[in-house]
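tool_call: predict_structure(chain=1)
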Amino acid sequence: MAAALVLPNSGPYTGTWNALVLGTLSDDGYSISATPQGQEINETDSYGLTLVEAIYRGINWRARFRGLEFKSGLLGALLAFGSTAAQPGGAGFGTLNPTLANIGDRWSKYGAALVLTAILANPPTSPQSLTASTAILAPGQNTEMMFTSKVKEVPIEMVLLPYAFVINSVTYNLPFSVT
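tool_result:
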């Protein structure tokens, strides 16, 4: 049997947030992005405003996806800071009932585990799982819901806040782990 010329990495993932199912997504699935932060060295007497170096100042990780179902995980992510439901999965949950509560609280207090799990084996899908233990709605993100006869798509953007994780007796600060 002839070998393929290209061995692509592909395959869908299922997802949960706070152990609640996120449901079916748009065809783009989950997108994980990184934004490196740095202090630019770009004001010098010899090179003017030319970027000649930068100082690494961390990296911000985000997860983006577009839900197609009003599942408990999707609503839980939207209502993480407060809703008229007693708690995610509690009485009244499953409807969009946000409250203006918890003003001034730490963002991380409302973060929960975002777990993505590959449906296909490895290969073709790698990584097999991604776990971000402190995922929460991104500050300033714009979530919109269409009120139309079409599918009510709900775009979500989460920040993956770093947390302490032990690997081989060494503690690392990381935004997510993969298997």
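agent: The mean pLDDT is 89. Proceeding to next step.
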